[in-house]
Design brief:
113 residues, mainly beta, four-stranded antiparallel beta sheet, 1 helix, 5% helix, elongated
């Protein structure tokens, strides 16, 4: 096909023959004037859902280089800091130290105490 329209393509079912690794579907399309070849395999995931795994190549056989992923900023880790009560808090409690209301347990803390 020499006259390719942009953002249009076709996919067709492939006869796998005696090669189970051959894709189930093949196709070609053009985006931005660049011709691509697409291959797809039907895959059943561990949770039982059927999905299509895809492979994209340039029509000349070169792999399509994807831009590197940018690292997502991680939220700051929470830290717990236990300090002595202030003088005003002790005075407000008539000299008694505040009692802890419960044990703080972090879910990912390997030490249970």
């Amino acid at each position: 096909m020499t006259d390719r329209r942009d953002n249009v393509g076709l996919m067709w079912v492939v006869d796998k023959g005696d090669n189970p690794r051959r894709p189930d579907w093949r196709g070609s399309f053009t985006v931005g004037g660049v011709a691509y070849v697409l291959a797809g395999w039907k895959v059943t995931r561990q949770d039982g859902r059927d999905v299509v795994s895809l492979k994209l190549e340039l029509a000349d056989g070169a792999n399509v280089a994807m831009p590197p992923r940018e690292a997502k900023p991680r939220p700051p880790q929470q830290s717990f800091r236990f300090t002595q009560p202030s003088a005003e808090t002790v005075k407000r409690l008539n000299g008694r130290k505040p009692q802890p209301r419960g044990k703080v347990v972090l879910a990912d803390d390997p030490i249970p105490f």
